């Protein structure tokens, strides 16, 4: 690792500092030691998720469930926006890294990470994983979404979108997502508070 931090801007709301960690932490700074875990703010799928959070999260007091948390970057971002986040990952090493990143980002009281899924429902559910995992987990993911919540799915390319929409739309009363794109990558957002598109 370099002895100089790498700074990654994710406009309009976040700045990611990737080790070392003497960086000043403020309400927009996410401090990461990624280790081998995925999610340092440079990948388009992660960046679109952070931007969707900044755009669609309630002003404060919301609960977020982060499926496939990796470094914890999205959970930490949610905490920086005033929420509380629970992240899960199948990778136990990622869980430890995410917890450490929460401490380094000064949000340790508002994020928690585990390999087991929590009970209950959440105002926002975000999952930046590959298509096959998203389709397999669809019923479990939708079951964690509050009735007026927001679901953010990413890690998709354009050819993945029809299959993922076809899997999730019936579980969400037939509603269609908003689709955001950046280069080859796509992010789907269902805002259940928004009027369904015709
Ligand atoms: C592309 S990374 C996303 C990391 C971070 N959330 C981000 O947005 O940058 C996907 C993560 O999902 C995890 N993952 C893969 N399959 C999973 C599953 N079935 N359940 C939970 N996590 C899973 C991987 O270990 C990996 O950390």
Question: Can you give a write-up of this model?
Answer:
The protein is of the alpha/beta class. It has a single domain, classed as 3-Layer(aba) Sandwich (Rossmann fold). Helix content is 28%, strand content 30%. The protein contains 5 helices and 10 strands; from the N terminus they run E-E-E-H-E-H-E-H-E-E-H-E-H-E-E. The strands form 2 sheets. The protein has a 7-stranded mixed sheet, with helices on both faces. A 3-stranded mixed sheet has the order 1-2-3. It is globular. The model has no long low-confidence stretch (mean pLDDT 94).
> Given the C-alpha coordinates, what overall shape results?
globular
Query: H/E order of the elements?
Result: EEEHEHEHEEHEHEE
Could you tell me the number of beta strands?
Answer: 10
Q: CATH homologous superfamily?
A: Vaccinia Virus protein VP39
- SS content category: alpha/beta
Q: Which percent range fits the helix content?
A: 25-40%
**Contiguous uncertain segments of 5+ residues:** none
- Architecture, according to CATH? 3-Layer(aba) Sandwich
The name of the CATH topology is Rossmann fold
* Sheet with most strands: strand arrangement: 6-5-4-7-8-10-9
- How many individual domains? 1
Sheet having the most strands: 7 strands, mixed
Instruction: Tell me the β content.
Output: 25-35%
**Heteromolecules bound:** S-adenosylmethionine
Distance, first to last CA: 51 Å
Calculate the mean pLDDT score and round it: 94
The CATH class designation is Alpha Beta
CA radius of gyration: 16 Å
